[in-house]
UniProtKB/TrEMBL annotation, chains A, B, C, D, E, F:
Zn(2+) binds at C40, D42, H99, C102. Pfam families: Pro_CA. Reversible hydration of carbon dioxide. PROSITE patterns: PROK_CO2_ANHYDRASE_1, PROK_CO2_ANHYDRASE_2. The keyword DNA damage does not apply. It comes from Paracoccus lutimaris. It catalyses: hydrogencarbonate + H(+) = CO2 + H2O. Belongs to the beta-class carbonic anhydrase family. Keywords: Lyase, Metal-binding, Zinc. Its EC number is 4.2.1.1. This is Carbonic anhydrase. PANTHER family: CARBONIC ANHYDRASE.
Length: 234, 234, 234, 234, 234, 234
């Protein structure tokens, strides 16, 4: 990267001065991002650009395949980012954002592409459920490109399921303090498909309607009351 | 157990002969259980008795707290039982059955009870989401016994969430071949509360209505079609 | 399972009332089972039926292959069940019960049967020692069915060896408070073969003799005394 | 995030059209980023902004604390991103970028801040070497803020050490195909300090000099030759 | 170590020449050690000196506490050494050798000594069974020094139990090709206490008798035959 | 090993008496070894002989391949030995010693040799970086024997890199209290090649010069000062 030097100089000389006060305030007061976005490491998918976010607005966790391992006894970087975002930063929205032409999803569908990459293989185990579902549903109907696309969409849903296994997320959903979003960014069109939990499918957001949500947090009714009344009915 | 000897002799002499033909056929043809039941190791919760099942009818996985670890890179006995039940035995129903007076749930709520038991502590990490949810929802309203009961119910739901992270289960649900059940067995009354996924709460099953189901498998609509149509709209 | 509804209703309506007082007492006083039984998830092997046990008598851990992972830094459900049974419930007997026609043991001997089941494969690593021993001893003598049977018996012994690596079991054995049992249930005959630790082989229990035991706990002689006397001899 | 809807619409309507051809080409030809940047999930540290990168230029892995676990038998998302970036994308530069006011580094120095966050605690074990070094060097000289700053700088170096344990990185360095960069972004000033491997300290890049590099890859001399000659000398 | 230079020069100049032919032959033909010795890293316990072994005679694995983790899904250096020694080198004897004044055993009994050493703590989990047994047996009878000694002896037995869980060892024992030895080296006297499996205690070896063995491998009787005969008896 | 009995008797009767006072003092005062040596389990590589060390002088960790896993969340015996040696014993030198004709390195280069040894395979993952580097550098130039030799040398360097990821070692290096040594013992010649960190290659030690060191610990300059001055320059 011959021009790394110029690039950071350009940021500091030309870009930073226009936002110096904002940066200074963020340094003093700390960050208060509204959302955590989990997206792919892919260089064509820039979370802050897609969401037109400035400094301090978006807490971002990126890895190959926008994967969220389920909460278990061996957790790592993604689990820590979730825990920190929910418990320390109190984010209100968590977005899992997949994308078209994803190299990780291609590797999941065509294992020979990653046969020299044992870590990538192991990491993609967290997406096996997406591949199993898509194979089950579409095995005989789709050509390879459409299958990769289908797996990519199912992968977003699988990672949302994994998100819910994290205690902090489960508690936030029960308390109605968090919403979960499942997105798919299309590099060719710049459009974002959004999973609509009520309709159970990805939709293109409509201009005049509210943005569909994958999983809406809501204050749940008290189960023991239901239980007690059921018991009392005997 | 001074009478272990008599007990197995009694089974062989008095009970087995009445079902010898059935056992012999099951030995020859193999098992074809309709359901997998995941329940607690507790001696007061006997899966075959509660479901009035005979030999060959119920594949049973039991552990402290009827826990299902999420699918991840470090899986063990429960994951193997699920995989075998779904892929080799083609079960149609998976039941997670919690129960009243559960020692594991008490340990989860009162950590001092299990402070000398490091394995139990680690195992119950898979139920932390249940405790987090119940604490969030009921912290100031319930006394300890009711809180343990609430945690026990939430724990059934958390384990159902974990079940869905297993590729074989996710694929079976998508294909409409599996239903998931969330039950709570009350030792004092012999009754079973059943989670109704549509109503989002535990209910007592009604005599004339079909048994409520927690998660109904169904053949899903083809997502790429939705995607394509959304794209075509541009 | 079309009749799950009827089944639980039948239990509650017809079976439970005859034992309501017992269940109620068990709910109030807690369980005090005499034994922990570790058996296979197989639907044809019902621990309470084989041992003619009623509610409250048998703490039961079931998984594919009646496996007991050795105590290590990554423990799960079986280790927790053992720890809870020994430390909280003070059971006196631990039974590892294998059985004929076991699908897990078949998978261990014929890996192609489970090549699509990565969790089962990994789980059966805990039985590799049984396969290694049987291959060593019988490789050229037994046909496949007998070999599977031999592996199943060796597997019971391997799991007994694993049991002894758990600190709570090791301490209980040293104090003479626990006995370990190795059983093999034959689905075709209803019979139970029992490992006789003294004779070092499986035997059919004899009517008039005490039930053989695999590993008898006993209060051990004090080693440092032996040591001291040895040292003093110099 | 009430305006998520507007934000993605704004990107698509106002920003994307100006770069539609670039995005389309990147979708067709795939990405060829020059660098992998590993930075913190912090919302105030935007890798593409700091490096003034456009779509397709920067492969980005972000987690709490810009951590790189060492290559081992239990790898996750960061290891996969590295493996994919080096082996599939052939990046030439890997940048580990720490920053001022880092919440993860504060948690590392003040454990009480994260005592309710077990995942964050476990994740920060990968930074313990940084804390050990800083404590060793500066324990009695620095106040808490300076100590956090020192730990943050040492943490960049520790993660560079971890990077070198990854086989793909080790091979790339030996072949002279990769350079490693250690950066520190100061939110208050917009400046980037750069680790100079030759001088063994962080420096501010000078306008007229080349950007200092932490670890320069270079084609290594052939060791067996050295060995042979040494042996021949006998 | 100011004299490391002289030391290796001294070996090469003064010691090696006297055994040059032996070393050369060992380099050409490979090693064929008769035994694997697993002993502590302690500088006062030198395996080759205690056993008066020359080059090529003893395969040696050393770690803090002469520990053998049980065979499981997460194995490391000791398991690899065992596997290599038994399968590639065909050793006939495996010796686990504990010793007096062992720092690891002191840390096991007095956890405050190692509270700053998280790896040592975790590693010693593999010795918890020894501590549990000794506490159970001697809690009220021994002073601290004797208790450490008792734990050290029990630890040798626990590691022998762990050894048996390794498939290669289990197979070798069943085939009568391996013997297991449990030793205790007393630094003060130079004596070795040997565990006598038949007597179930440590003894001082007697001059005229064969060396006692902890676990004697022997060709086992064929279990399926026993089984068949038992079955035939019906 | 028919003569194990004689061997330990010979040590006690003939060798120990000449050093009885030294052993007794070491038992009373504890060990204070100057160095930790990490070497292969190979029977032809005897650390105390190569370094002409007596009792109490060398803390020794041995495993197949003289491997040091990097510090991570799953540590074992080697990590514990390092931690204990540095923190409890305050060693000043850590030597990683590879050797010619190493079976582990042969297995790394010729995987078919170890295809029946899953633990050895997994363990050697910690040496994959060495193989990747050697393949990158010498793939087309060396025959197999020379390649194994090259991998063996690179492996020493990789393990030194791993050593530096351990917090205790990193802190010791920063404080100038520890030196790291990379050695290669040639069985055929008895010679030791030593890695010279300054020259970046293995050399034969010269008689009149100080022994070259791989990584020299040194009291590092205070980074925050550098930082502060850089910042002040704005
Ligand atoms: Zn992607
Ligand atoms: Zn329970
Ligand atoms: Zn079975
Ligand atoms: Zn940060
Ligand atoms: Zn020791
Ligand atoms: Zn070697």
């Amino acid at each position: 990267m011959p021009d790394l030097h110029q690039r950071i100089a350009s940021f500091r000389g030309n870009v930073f001065p226009r936002q110096a006060a904002l940066y200074r305030r963020l340094a003093q007061d700390g960050q208060q991002p509204q959302a955590l976005m989990i997206s792919c490491a892919d260089s064509r998918v820039m979370p802050e650009t897609i969401t037109q976010s400035g400094p301090g607005e978006l807490f971002v966790c990126r890895n190959a395949g926008n994967i969220v391992p389920p909460f278990s006894n061996m957790n790592g970087g993604v689990s820590s980012a979730i825990e920190y975002a929910v418990m320390a930063l109190k984010v209100h929205d968590i977005i899992v954002c997949g994308h078209s032409e994803c190299g990780a999803m291609k590797g999941l569908c065509c294992p020979h592409l990653i046969e020299e990459m044992p870590n990538v293989q192991a990491w993609l185990r967290h997406s096996h459920a997406a591949r199993s579902v898509a194979t089950q549903l579409y095995a005989n109907e789709l050509d390879q490109d459409d299958m990769i696309c289908a797996v990519t969409l199912e992968n977003v849903l699988v990672q949302l399921d994994h998100l819910r296994t994290h205690p902090s997320v489960a508690a936030g959903l029960a308390a109605g303090e968090i919403n979960l979003h499942g997105w798919f960014f299309d590099i060719k069109t710049g459009g974002v498909l959004v999973y609509d939990g009520a309709k159970e499918r990805f939709v293109e957001p409509e201009a005049d309607a509210p943005l569909p949500v994958a999983v809406t947090g809501r204050s749940r009714a008290c189960m023991p009351v239901a239980l007690t009344s059921a018991m009392a009915a005997e």
